[in-house]
């Protein structure tokens, strides 16, 4: 600690004593934001990725919150799929099924290949709209 932060107090019977302020416990940015995902690690990845020349201190917190929300949503849906299969462990297949059932996640993960996820489930043929056959009606011929 520097001497600028400390102060000298004159105690009777003891003499002059230098008193330092109590250090507060360090608090992570994830803890301040109430997140479980590491904000510092995301900040480091954003800096290394060279996505921008400069980064605001709010950007990694926001990106971390979005990532945490997406993971919570995905884990909730895949946990429901595992529960429906009467399993207590989420497998890549459950994640694949969870993504395929949710429209927004399906659009977000359209180019993603999940290792061990199996074949993507196709829609039942009743839900797939097929083009109807066009029938041409010829005018009736009148015979006299």
Automatic annotation (TrEMBL):
<dbReference type="InterPro" id="IPR032458">
    <property type="entry name" value="Histone_H2A_CS"/>
</dbReference>
<dbReference type="Pfam" id="PF00125">
    <property type="entry name" value="Histone"/>
</dbReference>
<keyword id="KW-0158">Chromosome</keyword>
<dbReference type="GO" id="GO:0003677">
    <property type="term" value="F:DNA binding"/>
</dbReference>
<comment type="subunit">
    <text>The nucleosome is a histone octamer containing two molecules each of H2A, H2B, H3 and H4 assembled in one H3-H4 heterotetramer and two H2A-H2B heterodimers. The octamer wraps approximately 147 bp of DNA.</text>
</comment>
<dbReference type="InterPro" id="IPR009072">
    <property type="entry name" value="Histone-fold"/>
</dbReference>
<dbReference type="InterPro" id="IPR007125">
    <property type="entry name" value="H2A/H2B/H3"/>
</dbReference>
<dbReference type="GO" id="GO:0005634">
    <property type="term" value="C:nucleus"/>
</dbReference>
<dbReference type="GO" id="GO:0000786">
    <property type="term" value="C:nucleosome"/>
</dbReference>
<comment type="similarity">
    <text>Belongs to the histone H2A family.</text>
</comment>
<dbReference type="GO" id="GO:0030527">
    <property type="term" value="F:structural constituent of chromatin"/>
</dbReference>
<feature type="domain" description="Core Histone H2A/H2B/H3">
    <location>
        <begin position="25"/>
        <end position="99"/>
    </location>
</feature>
<dbReference type="GO" id="GO:0046982">
    <property type="term" value="F:protein heterodimerization activity"/>
</dbReference>
<keyword id="KW-0238">DNA-binding</keyword>
<keyword id="KW-0539">Nucleus</keyword>
<keyword id="KW-0544">Nucleosome core</keyword>
<dbReference type="InterPro" id="IPR002119">
    <property type="entry name" value="Histone_H2A"/>
</dbReference>
<protein>
    <recommendedName>
        <fullName>Histone H2A</fullName>
    </recommendedName>
</protein>
